[in-house]
Write a structure and sequence with these properties.
Blueprint: E1 2-7, H1 8-16, H2 20-30, H3 38-55, E2 66-72, E3 79-87, E4 93-101, E5 107-108, E6 114-119, E7 122-127, H4 129-143, H5 145-149, E8 153-160, H6 168-171, H7 177-182, E9 185-187, H8 191-201, H9 209-216, H10 225-233, H11 244-259, E10 265-272, H12 278-291, E11 296-300, H13 303-315, H14 320-326, E12 327-328, E13 341-347, H15 366-373, E14 374-381, H16 395-404, E15 407-410, E16 416-417, H17 427-436, E17 453-457, H18 460-474, E18 477-481, E19 498-499, E20 505-506, E21 526-527, H19 529-532, E22 537-544, E23 548-551, E24 554-557, H20 578-594, E25 597-605, H21 608-617
Parallel strand pairs: 4-8, 8-9, 10-14, 10-15, 10-16, 11-12, 11-13, 13-14, 17-25, 18-21, 18-22, 22-25
Antiparallel strand pairs: 1-2, 2-3, 3-4, 5-6, 6-7, 19-20, 23-24
Length: 621
Amino acid sequence: MIVYSGNLKQFSNDVLMGIIADRIEEEFEKKGFSHHNDAEYRAFNNSLMVMNNVLCNNSGINQDINIAIEYQIPLTSKRVDFLITGYDENNKENVVIVELKQWESCSATSRDDVVTTYVGGAVRAVSHPSYQAYSYAKAIESFNETVREKYINLHPCAFCHNYKDEYEDQIRHPKYNEAIELAPLFLKKDQIELRDFVKKYITKPDKGEILYTIENGKIRPSIALQDAISSLLKGNEVFTMIDEQQVAYATIKKLVESTIDSDKKHTVIVQGGPGTGKSVIAVNLLSQLINQGYNVEYVTKNAAPRNVFTTLLVRNDFKKRYVENLFKGSGSFCDTKTNLFDCLLVDEAHRLNEKSGLFQNKGENQIKEIINASKISVFFIDEDQVVTTKDIGSVNEIKKWANELGSTVHFGEDLKLVSQFRCGGSDGYLAFLDNLLGIRETANINMIDIDYDIRVFDDPNQMRDELRKINQINNKARMLAGYCYNWVSNKDINLYDIKLENGFEAQWNFANTNTFAIDEDSFEQVGCIHTSQGLEFDYCGVIIGKDLIYKDNQVMTDSKARAKTDQSLKGLYKFKNPEEKASQIIRNTYKTLLSRGQKGCFVYCEDKALSEYIKTKLNIC
């Protein structure tokens, strides 16, 4: 999505008339986005006036070339500040990407491509502007197939137009040379150099054709982690970290490198919702630290991602024993010696249990055992994905055991992932789910103009038929459901577990495979939270059972509608408010299922009132 676009002549007129910020706000409103952000409004006025000085005012740049302001990168919530498009002297199509910063100063850090500066009312660790511009260009290349197919060249740069000379040594520290080489950095005094950079690549107008290609190009979904796992472990760069992802990644990597030789223990807590890149960061760190010679393992309670990763890696010539030693279950550390590992990367930490073993009779506490076993323990957590009564993973629980074991806790803004790269890149969709499911109140009560394919079906057969067509493309669509259906096919393979209206019948996938997400013949089975959490699909179809209903003008839960074979609510009596705990688990389960799809999510509700309610929130007549 491009918020504002036009030629330089039009842009300059809007700036000189003092209406550029108002025009941008109007365009946000036209596109269905409420954007009442005073800080950004002031930034538009200040930064764009300087850009007008660079590009117009006898600059020698053709005033018919096109520009775009606030371009949202497909499948992300990230926006590029300023794009300039046109042809060079050899008639090649080029785009100059300008990341605009109003910083007056910053401080270099020891972390890769990370600086600290005053932003958002406090001094924070953020990506270096050049790295940020470069990462945005890589994201556009990655997600926009048409940009790649038409060989449109992207040239990122950063422009800190208020930056003070006395702090130049910080932002141009040799540590950032590689990023600055990839995306040149221009400061307040460098306006002529920035102008020359633009003129090097853009001399002739393109009549808006390049912007049209960028806005309407064919979008390729982001690569699922399971598809990239082999390449990552071979040391290839598959995912370019963006903004807070890079800050978290660099912070953890530097902590390992700088403290591993000391006797001190460290515990890192990384928070992030679905699709924010927790698993991507964990696997990237695994690959990087292994290649640097550290003793490190990836840990997760969920067997599904471990099984999928192992299968795919063995197919790509990795030794099975080697892979199994890299990817461990969370119950593997009951009897492990203190500090045996340099680093343990614990994904889906909210799913950790107290006891381990098949009969929950081993060990004392998985969080305690993991912290004990490693010099540096890293927990990636989303408390809104707690989905059983056995799940004890929480920020407070991790802090408690870290303090008891004398481990320094690292927790805060530097380690918080906000922007997500699933569900069409829409933060609004996840906020919408929070509101819809009654997890918390958000501003996203309704879905408006979000580029994500969400549909509600009245007939489960129609939903399955549509998903089946999609799955035939690349085997990346699956049906998922809440725990409302007894598992009877485990005793008789001729029986169906899930029976719905209009003759719909299906079996759970439990007994069929350990790699439901990637098997060629698993589409006809229905997955659950355990076979999908930690993984992702292009499309998912979610069957919402009678444990989630709409009654008395609100979304309610009914734990009695859960299957008798459901173990996720077992042991509710241990909680002070058992029904409240059951309600939390049910709501979290559906949020997790409804956020597995990268491109789209189909929904079928057994409760017709809930179905109609969701339709109203989606503006479906």
